[in-house]
Description:
Strand 2 (74-80) and strand 3 form a beta hairpin. This protein has 165 residues and is an alpha+beta fold. It is built from three helices and six strands. The chain has a single domain, classed as Alpha-Beta Barrel (Multidrug-efflux Transporter 1 Regulator Bmrr, Chain A), CATH 3.20.80.10.
Amino acid sequence: xxxxxxxxxxxxxxFDPAVWDSxxxxxxxxxxxxDSLRLxxxxxxxxxxxxxxxxxxxxxxRANAAPDLSDFLVLxxxxxxxxxxxxxxxxxxxxxxxxxxISGTFFTKVFDGPFRxxxxxxxxxxxxxxxxxxxxxxxxxxxxxxxxxxxxxxHNYVVAFAQIS
Length: 165
C-alpha cells in the first residue's frame, strides 16, 4: 500500500469511521506479520515508519498475502517508550517475515486528532470498556492514513483496539 505521492493525491484509501467505531471484534488466530522500530518517547522518526510500512507491504505482496486495500490493517503497540511493534494483517503466511496470529475479543472506537492525544484516547477507552463491565488487557492503535493523506482528507482517524480480558 505505501507509495510515493504528491501533496494533493492521496495514497491511502478514504476511511469510513462507521466501519470500526463502537464495535466488538473477535479474532481467532488472525494472521499478521510483525516488525518493530525504535521510538523516542513513543514517537518514531518519520522516515523510519514509512520504510517499515513499505518493507512489510512489499513482503506481503511478494507472498501473495497482501489484503485488499479495503481490508488493510496495521496495528501499532508500544511495549515501551523506546520500542514500537507493528502488526500488518495478511491473508496467509509470509516467508522472510515474523508471522504471528492474534486471537481475542476487542472493543473499538474511532478517534480523530493528533497522535499526541493517544493518552486521552486511552482514558476514553478505559471508560468505554468499564461501562461494558470489562477490563483491558492490551491496547493497539490503527492509524488509518499516513500524515500526508490525513492532511488531504482533513481527518487523522485512529482506531483504538482494546483487547478485553
